[in-house]
Specification:
The protein has 213 residues and is α+β, with helices and mostly antiparallel strands. Helices cover 12% and strands 24% of the residues. It has 3 helices and 12 strands; from the N terminus they run αβββαβββββαββββ. The strands form 2 sheets. Strands 4-5-6-12-11-10-9 form a 7-stranded antiparallel β-sheet, with helices on both faces. Strands 3-2-1-7-8 form a 5-stranded mixed β-sheet, with no helix packed on it. The termini are close together.
Amino acid sequence: MRIRRGAIALLTATLLLAGCATPVSGPEQTPTGSAPAAQSTPSATASRSAGEPDPDDPSTWIVSADGMGPVLIGGEFDAALAELPTSWTSDGAACSWAAFWNAPDNSFSMHFVRGAEDQSEPISEISASTMADSVTGAVGPETAEGIGVGATRDEILDAYPEAEEGTATVDGEWIRVASESDGQIFFQFLTGAERAWAVTVTTRDEPSYEVCG
């Protein structure tokens, strides 16, 4: 099953009930190559001044090279899911390596994944996204610099002047904020689009195109 970009925010909950949910993001679970060399760019690890992140509200979470809010790169999948509200769901039969969440107003959605082959593999990707073809402004979690889904290319490059721009292996474009951590922050765009439809922290060469496909 393959669900393309732009549909995930409205379809995630339905797909989970059907036995498989597929977020919209870059290549499949298998990495496409070796990890790129780290660059000396901000890793967005400082806290925003708006207060402590609310586990029930991922829009308050901080995006950094280490993860998003309480969901951290390298963390244990089942333990992380158990600590989150029951609005986070995982299909243990069809897609046991991924967990999903939808905003009550469907303004954005989130997912995190571990390796698909071994239940003991750590969390390797966390993502927030919105409808790719209709993003108009900021929604969801942000970096310490206030950058997240809906940010423009100029806003991202102003906040991270050493960030790298690239083209996704399957579809779309990205801006990558490298770090010395295992994870890197990617802002994802439809080809030629001005605003990011997703922000993803991953240990892979680029965000996954499919998660449960």
